[in-house]
Write a structure and sequence with these properties.
two-stranded antiparallel sheet, homodimer, 331 residues, Farnesyl Diphosphate Synthase
Chain lengths: 331, 331
């Protein structure tokens, strides 16, 4: 794997075809979040620093370009998508107790849970308010439904903690609902907004879904294999939070009874110790990681097949490279 | 003051003119929240029991009738408004650490903060998704903006904890933003949806704002004077949470330095003791309550003047009686 800084500059290069659009998107987000009270501004400035890759915004713009469907409103749609993503991140920090995200102290560390809830609600509200200003209602509709589905995914995930017997299908449904939904919505809106283009929208939605699900699977692998230094956020938090991810499910399904008991114990014992290290050393979880990476690879290949049905263009090439990039990333 | 059960049956009587609409609203909410996964259903069933007065839904319907502006969609608008209200209640429970709301254990007592955040997000998302299905975008627009303003109010309130020097104007801005906003939006939508009727919409919006602000002021008074038995939720939580409400602001502004020090100490001392009792006994806070009730009275009279510009009808009479009722309530 490339070191993080080269990876980031590589990603920057992939997003070049839509650099102007991303600049407009950033300006729109900044304008949406400024001009409010000092208390709000103080919070918003803080999250500004962990806006990160803006991959979802780039997908709106690239899918617009790659399908010759770009409009003046695409950068606003991208801003709405990113603000919803930010809201989910902020609320996730309440959920996970994660200690570090992108090397900036989480909102709920610098402030408290109450503030994180309010700031997330504010971001959702601002995003929906912006979407209702657009000329077509498609953006509000697709993203309201996407947000609902993300919540259902998170709720199901919370209800499935310590469920070591979960099927892969259910794991993928949950991982997809909470993560791939917004990728799918971003790609669909890029290809379909403001109206029509149903078939093209459905294809790009599927592309986004596969890309996002692969992204989440790789994320789940990195939580078991990477260092905090590499990914820029806490690792091992899934195990800490009782989330049974694909690598662990795979290992559990293939384990004998004593190894299963060991896995359950490592997840649930009071003294944390090195839970991830113990899973790796004693429970064949790295073989599960290999299996999960293979599954992510399958999804990416299916996503690539879809995008290759589009006519060649710089934007299409970027989408293809982003898909490849999701597999290779170490952050 | 009437005992609670007579008050409730009195309120039921006031809502009779829109009983059918409220029934349709309840059915719409039930339909919106059912049909999802067992994990979601389990949560939703729980909150079903603290839906309460549905006063905001009734205001949509009554304002529609009183302005001869009712449509088939008004009960759906009422459902969106109630779902947003429910979402704010659920997230408020994370915020306040309130222990009892309407005598049903709070979501965050039966589950945890994470679940409350997710359920609130789900309710917001469902509400916005429903609003995007309506024929006019007015509902989405007004309620997205209202939700944003509610969040800003809550954020400002959090930033103003233990601020004993707050002006009354700022107190009213915050109390209005967090509470009156949704009343104002409900009344405006009732009178304006789906389009036009700007003047009538603005008048009923103002009616809702004054009604909602009076409601919040009375709420703040009850937190200092009522028993948990009377209001059906924890009392004294404002003092516990560092919220300086109008009665306390009034008393503080008129107190000598030693009483001011006492007020600050009662709010901030480590041993809680009987904070509310001490404020009442030692700091003239009951005179502040009297002043605040007088201010609520002023607001209600202004609200009544507005509604009396409408032609007489059963709906108008209900709106007038509800306004009077807000002053008299003990819950």
């Amino acid at each position: 794997m490339l070191p993080m800084s080269s990876q980031q500059s590589e990603l920057m290069r992939l997003l070049l075809p839509v650099a102007d659009g991303i600049k407009r998107t950033r300006e729109t987000i900044a304008a949406q979040l400024s001009g409010t009270s000092p208390a709000v501004r103080d919070m918003v400035e803080h999250i500004g620093r962990f806006q990160g890759k803006q991959l979802r915004a780039a997908l709106v713009l690239l899918c617009g370009d790659a399908t010759s469907n770009s409009t003046d409103e695409h950068s606003s749609i991208a801003a709405v998508v990113e603000m919803i993503h930010l809201a989910t991140l902020v609320h996730d920090d309440v959920l996970d107790g994660a200690e570090v995200r992108r090397r900036v102290a989480c909102v709920n560390q610098r402030w408290d849970n109450q503030t994180a809830v309010l700031l997330g609600d504010f971001l959702y509200a601002r995003a929906f308010a912006l979407s209702t200003d657009l000329s077509s209602r498609m953006c509000s509709r697709v993203l309201a439904e996407a947000t609902r589905r993300i919540c259902v995914g998170e709720i199901q995930q919370a209800a499935s903690r310590y469920d070591f017997e979960m099927t892969q299908e259910r794991y993928e449904w949950i991982a997809g609902a909470k993560t791939a939904t917004l990728y799918a919505a971003a790609c669909e809106l890029g290809a379909r907004y403001p109206s029509g283009h149903d078939e093209q929208g459905a294809r790009m939605r599927q592309f986004g879904w596969e890309l996002g699900l692969a992204f989440q699977i790789i994320d789940d692998c990195l939580d078991l294999t990477a260092t905090q230094q590499e990914v820029g956020k806490s690792v091992g938090t899934d195990v800490e939070d009782g989330k049974v991810t694909l690598p662990v499910l795979w290992a559990y399904a293939r384990a004998d009874e004593s190894t299963r008991a060991a896995i359950r114990d490592i997840y649930t014992r009071t003294e944390a110790g090195d839970r991830v290290g113990d899973l790796r050393r004693r429970c064949r979880v790295l073989e599960g990681v290999e299996y999960a990476r293979h599954r992510a690879d399958e999804l990416i290949h299916s996503a690539l097949d879809r995008v290759r049905e589009l006519p060649p263009s710089a934007a299409r090439a970027s989408l293809e490279n982003i898909a490849g990039f999701v597999l290779e990333r170490s952050w």
